[in-house]
Amino acid sequence: MKELAANKEIMVRFSEVGPTGVVKSVAYAHYFEDAREEFGRKYGLEYMRMAKNSFAAPLVELTFKAIRPMYYERPYSVAIRYIPTEAAKILFRYEITDLQSGEVVVTGKTLQVFMDMEYRLLWYKPYYYIAWQKRWEVME
Amino acid sequence: MKELAANKEIMVRFSEVGPTGVVKSVAYAHYFEDAREEFGRKYGLEYMRMAKNSFAAPLVELTFKAIRPMYYERPYSVAIRYIPTEAAKILFRYEITDLQSGEVVVTGKTLQVFMDMEYRLLWYKPYYYIAWQKRWEVME
Amino acid sequence: MKELAANKEIMVRFSEVGPTGVVKSVAYAHYFEDAREEFGRKYGLEYMRMAKNSFAAPLVELTFKAIRPMYYERPYSVAIRYIPTEAAKILFRYEITDLQSGEVVVTGKTLQVFMDMEYRLLWYKPYYYIAWQKRWEVME
Amino acid sequence: MKELAANKEIMVRFSEVGPTGVVKSVAYAHYFEDAREEFGRKYGLEYMRMAKNSFAAPLVELTFKAIRPMYYERPYSVAIRYIPTEAAKILFRYEITDLQSGEVVVTGKTLQVFMDMEYRLLWYKPYYYIAWQKRWEVME
Predict the structure, then answer these.
(1) Distance from CA of A122 to the nearest CA of B (A)
(2) Are the C-beta atoms of D69 and D104 separated by less than 8 Å?
(3) Which residues 6+ apart lie within 8 Å of A51 measured at CB?
(4) CB contacts < 8 Å between A and C, how many?
(5) Which residue from C33, C48, C72 is facing B15, i.e. has the nearest CB?
């Protein structure tokens, strides 16, 4: 069983800094999204690829924990790790690391479910996704 | 022991709707923020009031669960509930309700810690906050 | 010829405040959007109404001028005014007023064009829009 | 007299795509900001550098024109060009280019003024900025 993971370097936008001088927490959700898109490109699980195969995978759960504040004009990297599950869900774990100090500053996870194009929940994994899991050998 | 709670009606902005026609999940974090500000105004726990008393209460944890999608041009309301804790933390729970159907569409919680104005974590509750808890009788 | 206008009170979100303590300019685009939606509801020119009539009116030009900074926890109002034109375009002018001091703090304008649902530019006004202009007597 | 310019490749975030399948116009303001920060880093005119020299340069005017829609998962680049002026203002012009077709899709400009750290308008150029203009030979 392989572990699928990707890394995305991020640049804090000035507009993501709040009145206290540190990055506003709502920006973490955007950084996770950036990492998810990087993962999608690397492993062929992009939104467009899903849409062509007639399903979507909307986010239904997100959790983040801020361990330390993030600052403007410092280099950071988001590590995203795919956690295989038997259920018809996509689970990712995230870690944002301060590249200067090497410290983890934020952790988090997201859960996605499958929907058809009329936005009805799918209780089973779409065929494309099953094939995708086989190709990357993520399930035993 | 009293229960402190507030309600905030929300209006989905067109720019919060994604390509799938439903509200993008990152908007939930904004709706929770709107509710938190409503709560702060109602009970005297606003950011400004804290800053005058030399502390801040940054968000360090956020979780949301989307039960049903949210749509543009429908009325919603966010209920925010204050959950008293012994620890030097502020905990809120949230429920977004579709006012047409009466159904809960999103739930969530946030956790805030206390920092001084140099952004150092406070391990104890600030004096203003202790007095605030007394005034509202939220601790036994 | 009538003048069509609407007003939308706005509440500055804490997340719209930048590190300098004043509202970040990108938020102005959101406030204009709020006013445009208020106008749409008042006069029956909403996005959904357009979509049902098989056209969209994407923003192709936006200008804002900040005369004074905007602050958190002060009341503001956005006035939106419809400027009739012969061309197949929708032009709005905006003024954000500080309700405490009565001063105009931001002005702006936006221009929208008409597109069909395949996102092709329409060189003529859609039928629904011509009828809308007649109903509200905005053209001579 | 030299021309100062920079280029910033941009990646459209999924959350920047609207219900019509194209990038929402408010995102252009963010792309301009990304380019301005790239310029700042390249030529030593970052926000932090200004703050250390006791001034800020808030945006007071922004204009964009969308010539063609922008799409998700296509490569774009924002070119930013510094336009020297005698006045105590910073003027930039922008062009977003579709790297696949080579077409310009969005143009724009922004104007910044100088403020001291108490957010009072400066009618003269700050010393640091005059020295910066000399160093880069942007004024005759």
Answers:
(1) 13
(2) no
(3) A117
(4) 22
(5) C33
What is the C-alpha separation between A133 and A114, in angstroms, rounded?
Answer: 15
Count of positions (residues) in chain C: 140
Instruction: Indicate if the pLDDT at residue D140 is higher than 70.
Output: no
Q: How far is D12 from chain C (nearest CA, A)?
A: 17
At A100, list the tokens: 């200067």
Q: Is D32 helix (H, G, I), strand (E, B) or coil?
A: helix
H helices, E strands: number in chain B: 3, 7
Q: CB under 8 Å to B120, separation ≥6 — which residues?
A: none
Q: Compute the nearest-CA separation of A70 from chain B (Å).
A: 11
Compute the distance between CA of residue B110 and CA of residue A64 in angstroms, rounded to an integer: 10
- Gap between the Cα atoms of B112 and A119, Å rounded: 34
For an interface test with C, give the residue of B8, B10, B13, B14 to mutate (most C CBs within 10 A). Answer: B14
Predicted ipTM of the assembly: 0.86
Q: Which residue from A26, A30, A119 is facing B22, i.e. has the nearest CB?
A: A119
Contacts of C39 (CB under 8 A, 6+ apart): C4, C5, C6, C45, C80, C82, C92
Q: Rounded CA gap, D12 and D74, in Å?
A: 8
Instruction: Write the secondary structure of B10-35 as one string of H (helix), E (strand) and C (coil).
Output: ECCCHHHECCCCCECCHHHHHHHHHH
* Contact between residue B65 and residue B106 where contact means Cβ atoms under 8 Å apart: yes
| Per-residue pLDDT at D100 exceeds 70 | yes
| CB contact burial B84-123 (16+ within 10 A = b; e otherwise) | beeebebebbbbbbbeeeeeebbbbbbbbbbbeeeeeeee
Q: Which of A15, A33, A48 sits opposite D13 (nearest CB)?
A: A33
A46's tokens: 């992009």
Q: Nearest Cβ partner of D21 from B14, B19, B26? A: B19
pTM of the model: 0.86
pLDDT exceeds 70 at position A140? no
Residue of D nearest to B25 (CA): D15
Are A19 and C24 in contact (CB < 8 Å)? no
Helices (H) and strands (E) in chain D, counts: 3, 7
User: C17 falls in which pLDDT band (50, 70, 90)?
Assistant: confident
Give me the percent of chain A exceeding a pLDDT of 90.
69
What is the structure's pLDDT at C53? 87
Beta pairing class for D5-10 and D76-83? antiparallel
| CB spacing of A29 vs B30 below 8 angstroms | no
CB contact under 8 A, B61 and A63: yes
Question: Which tokens belong to A72?
Answer: 């403007």
